[in-house]
User: Which sequence fits this backbone?
């Protein structure tokens, strides 16, 4: 299986909003409401930000939100802050009962 | 607070095997799947497989099916991942990661990672 498709990089200024897309197929993103998003700072382990498309774990800022339309899921970060600068990965459950990750998106806060 | 503490960095020669351990605490070990994910230097995340600590059942990505063995020891709340026939492109940070409430559909907590370097 090929990785889910994410833009390599996105950027925004403090206070602005950005959206990261994650495109798959009907066998993964489009077929299940099991898309999750992870934040990874350099040298650190990933951190869960969104699960089941649009659910935030306890402790994650409400500036992070998720959505899905067809085969594409999206992560929106509003009110950008310097600490949001990191790599972001989407993942989806698949029809093969596996987890499939996106290639990752580097978010730069200008 | 859920914690997953992994074993230390390893250096292996091509063709050898490596076994990474992952000790869980602050939750019921047998109630949550354990996944294994790796990340090559400068690259993205790659799902390798999962184990049901309660039953011992495993499921791995097709790419690793012939080389990966996942086990667990419920008496000490530990999971293990052994990768055999190592190649240079197996050089990566290997993470253990707990499955979320649904078990197989997402990951909620990650270990700190174990760097495995394969070099002659």
Assistant:
């Amino acid at each position: 299986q090929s990785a889910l498709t994410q833009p390599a990089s996105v950027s925004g200024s403090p206070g602005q909003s950005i959206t990261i897309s994650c495109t798959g197929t009907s066998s993964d993103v489009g077929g299940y409401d099991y898309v999750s998003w992870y934040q990874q700072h350099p040298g650190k382990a990933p951190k869960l930000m969104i699960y089941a498309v649009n659910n935030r774990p306890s402790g994650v800022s409400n500036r992070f939100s998720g959505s899905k339309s067809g085969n594409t899921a999206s992560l929106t970060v509003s009110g950008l802050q310097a600490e949001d600068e990191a790599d972001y990965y989407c993942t989806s459950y698949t029809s093969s009962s596996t987890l499939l990750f996106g290639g990752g998106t580097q978010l730069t806060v200008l | 607070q859920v914690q997953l503490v992994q074993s230390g960095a390893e250096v292996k020669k091509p063709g050898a095997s490596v076994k990474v351990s992952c000790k869980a605490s602050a939750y019921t070990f047998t109630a949550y799947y354990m996944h294994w994910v790796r990340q090559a230097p400068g690259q993205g995340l790659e799902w390798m497989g999962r184990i049901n600590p309660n039953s011992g059942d495993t499921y791995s990505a097709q790419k690793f099916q012939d080389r990966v063995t996942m086990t667990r020891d419920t008496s000490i709340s530990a999971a293990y991942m052994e990768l055999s026939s190592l190649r240079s492109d197996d050089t990566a940070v290997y993470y253990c990661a707990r499955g979320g409430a649904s078990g197989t559909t997402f990951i909620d907590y990650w270990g700190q990672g174990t760097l495995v370097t394969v070099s002659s």
Observations:
- Chain B has no helices and eleven strands.
